[in-house]
């Protein structure tokens, strides 16, 4: 399975409309990939909180959804289009990732469960998602998560219990916590015996330098590919039969004790 992670530079001097066109062309250049992944909130910027309300759009027929649907269809790829600021029918805002099939249809979406901000920014401007989402695509099962979710292993256990073999994590991760990004991506791969596709943004927006350094991590924690800090297309090949063999030869997931109960103080 060939994957391409497009680490997009979110430049505040570039309009969202211009960026959509540029990103659509980048997706078009990945024809032949099985799955293309974009970062979190690349149309507006993950830290551009003041722009969330004005940039909110429909997940089905908004400008980003239309552009990415056409890009997926033109390239003939599964496209995880990163995330958008979704305006729900009731007016609420969500950080919502979109998965398009090679025919351009919106196949699945995921609303980010864990909102970042500590009672500021995204944490107060957006509503939380309520469901863990897995979806069969590109001859595997994808588990969908977004950025800050990476710090919460409970969500990833739900995804693996739902059959996920490949964990897709678009992000707008700040450079000042870059060491956490790499450590957590590797940890999620090891503990869940799954591939992790962690795709971040590049550049600086809203005064926050982005980490970049997108990663493809194997189930044993080996980093198969890693980007630098700037805009870059990162490609890797995932060996899905080897993943099944690895889980069978080292069946750690079977040893989980779900009946152990809560820890007791002594």
UniProtKB/TrEMBL annotation:
CDD domains: nitrilase_5. GO terms for molecular function: hydrolase activity. Signal peptide: none annotated. Residues 1-240 form the CN hydrolase domain. PROSITE patterns: CN_HYDROLASE, UPF0012. It holds the Pfam family CN_hydrolase. Keywords: Hydrolase. Belongs to the carbon-nitrogen hydrolase superfamily. NIT1/NIT2 family. PANTHER family: DEAMINATED GLUTATHIONE AMIDASE, NITRILASE-RELATED. This is Carbon-nitrogen family hydrolase. It comes from Streptomyces polyrhachis.
């Amino acid at each position: 399975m060939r994957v391409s992670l497009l680490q997009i530079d979110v430049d505040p001097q570039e309009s969202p409309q211009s960026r959509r066109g540029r990103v659509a062309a980048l997706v078009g250049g990945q024809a032949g990939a099985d799955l293309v992944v974009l970062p979190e909130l690349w149309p507006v910027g993950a830290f551009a909180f003041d722009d969330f309300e004005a940039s909110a759009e429909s997940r089905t027929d908004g400008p980003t959804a239309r552009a990415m649907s056409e890009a997926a269809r033109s390239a003939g790829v599964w496209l995880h289009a990163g995330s958008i600021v979704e305006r729900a029918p009731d007016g609420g805002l969500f950080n919502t990732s979109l998965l398009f099939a090679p025919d351009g249809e919106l196949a699945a979406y995921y609303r980010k469960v864990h909102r970042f901000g500590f009672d500021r920014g995204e944490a107060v401007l957006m509503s939380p998602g309520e469901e863990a989402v897995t979806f069969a695509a590109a001859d595997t099962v994808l588990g969908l998560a977004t950025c800050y979710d990476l710090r919460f292993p409970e969500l990833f256990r739900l995804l693996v219990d739902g059959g996920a073999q490949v964990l897709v994590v678009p992000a707008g991760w700040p450079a000042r916590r870059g060491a956490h990004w790499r450590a957590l991506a590797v940890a999620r791969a090891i503990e869940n015996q799954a591939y992790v596709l962690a795709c971040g943004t590049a550049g600086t927006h809203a005064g926050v330098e982005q980490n970049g350094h997108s990663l493809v991590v194997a189930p044993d924690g080996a980093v198969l590919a890693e980007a630098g800090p700037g805009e870059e297309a990162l490609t890797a090949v995932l060996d899905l039969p080897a993943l099944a063999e690895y889980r069978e030869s080292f069946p750690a997931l079977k040893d989980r004790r779900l009946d152990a109960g809560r820890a007791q103080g002594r």
